[in-house]
Amino acid sequence: MDMNPLKIDLEDASVTSQRSVTILGSTGSVGCNTVDLIEANLEHFTVEALTANRNVERLADQARRLKAKTVVLADPEGYQDLKDALAGTDTYVAAGADAVVEAADQPADWVMASIVGAAGLKPALAAVRRGATIGLANKECLVSAGDVFVREVADHNATLLPVDSEHSAIFQVFDFDNADHIRRIILTASGGPFRQFTTEQMEAVTPEQAVAHPNWDMGAKISVDSATMMNKGLELIEAFHLFPVTSEQIEILVHPQSVIHSMVDYVDGSVLAQLGTPDMRTPIAYSLAWPKRMRTPAARLDLEDIATLTFEAPDPERFPALNLARHALETGGKAPTALNAANEVAVSHFLNKRIGFLDIVRIVGETLNAATWGRLENLDDVGQTDTEARKIAEDLVSRL
Ligand SMILES: NC(=O)c1ccc[n+]([C@@H]2O[C@H](COP(=O)([O-])OP(=O)(O)OC[C@H]3O[C@@H](n4cnc5c(N)ncnc54)[C@H](OP(=O)(O)O)[C@@H]3O)[C@@H](O)[C@H]2O)c1
């Protein structure tokens, strides 16, 4: 089996007593949880930079609480408001997509990549290219740039720590030194809010219903991805790039309680799992303190109280996103880039009520079928493919 070139060198890693950190996407769901953990441990952290897209008020508040050196808004429109909100502080204020990349380039030891979507790719790469330790929540950038991203990580001796709860779980029980002793990895999935819906029922669901996840409190896009189960498809591709396994070695298992966050099945019959309450502060803390651990306010797991853990196979008929993502992964090259871009377009149109819930995966499938997606060699290919797939998906939406 080919070893994944991802460099995770436990011996090189150490947590210094004061660590400088940057949070890309600090105003989002993952970002706010990260801010809370850092604020509770300010004696251990200095904050280099915080970034957001438009949320001036929250970003300014976070900058004051964490005494951030730099804050950046991707959308320049709010620049003056942010500057006014931080008047009298030492925080440097900037705006624009390039300024977000520059913020990631500031010399923070640890960077949380929690921008949503492919918009997070360039900033995450800036952190990778200076060899930082990156807590990766932004799965879309790994799906979109795949091998190209992983090669950059290896070339620049960066360290990538998964923040997605499933991948954090696998990371914690995966024996990298004996990867050939691993039979398969099992990604657990809650099944989302429509786990028991018929296709007919799904036809009519609204964005409000789709963003109301039964177990996790998350941003709108990932909540919709969880509802279509495209999230698990993206995670399948993410797992392929993070761990030295083949596509066939990655299984998906629906586990509605979200207590077992994923498992690794070894050749001797042992199955190792990581468990916890569904609280993102646990995997975020794991990546923040790694290779040590830190306390979090996450609720403790009480198995006696939960009493029953259940499991079921995913239904590919009602959730075609799973097979679509696996097909894109196995096709390789530019197909996952196109899948991700089309999904971002379709989800945003669903959230704006322009298209229906089932149209999301339909549009992703039709986008994949609309072109021959060749080899993905470099970052230019990623950008061009992303643009092309978005155009195709937009065109499909306009014809609905
Ligand atoms: N939420 C979870 O529990 C969870 C779990 C696992 C993985 N993830 C992954 O983590 C990432 C973030 O998820 P989330 O739920 O935290 O998302 P979210 O709540 O929507 O937050 C997204 C963050 O990215 C910023 N942002 C949005 N568009 C941007 C752009 N074009 N340029 C720069 N910044 C931009 C937002 O700023 P504004 O606030 O100003 O809009 C916000 O800070 C996603 O990739 C998701 O799949 C999330």
How is the secondary structure organized here?
Layout: E1 19-24, H1 29-39, E2 45-52, H2 56-66, E3 70-73, H3 79-85, E4 92-95, H4 97-105, E5 110-113, H5 121-129, E6 133-136, H6 139-155, E7 159-162, H7 165-173, E8 182-189, H8 199-203, H9 207-211, H10 220-228, H11 230-242, E9 250-254, E10 260-266, E11 271-275, H12 281-289, H13 303-306, H14 321-331, H15 335-351, H16 357-369, H17 379-398
Parallel strand pairs: 1-2, 1-5, 2-3, 3-4, 5-6, 6-7, 8-9
Antiparallel strand pairs: 8-10, 10-11
Question: How would you describe this protein?
Answer:
The protein has 17 helices and 11 strands. The chain is of the alpha/beta class. The strands form 2 sheets. A 7-stranded parallel beta sheet has the order 4-3-2-1-5-6-7, with helices on both faces. Helix 6 packs antiparallel against helix 15. NADP nicotinamide-adenine-dinucleotide phosphate (NAP) is lined by residues 25-31, 52-55, 74, 100, 114-116, 119, 137-140, 164, 216, 218-222, 280.
Name a few traits of the molecule:
400 residues, alpha/beta, seven-stranded parallel sheet, 15% strand, binds NADP nicotinamide-adenine-dinucleotide phosphate
Condensed summary:
With 400 residues, this protein is an alpha/beta fold.
Mass-distribution shape: globular
Q: Which blocks of ≥5 consecutive residues have pLDDT under 50?
A: 1-16
H and E order: EHEHEHEHEHEHEHEHHHHEEEHHHHHH
The total strand number stands at 11
Mean pLDDT: 95
Helicity range: 40-55%
Radius of gyration: 20 Å
Strand content: 5-15%
Distinct ligand kinds: NADP nicotinamide-adenine-dinucleotide phosphate
Largest sheet: 7 strands, parallel
Number of helices: 17
Q: By helix and strand content, what is the structural category? A: alpha/beta
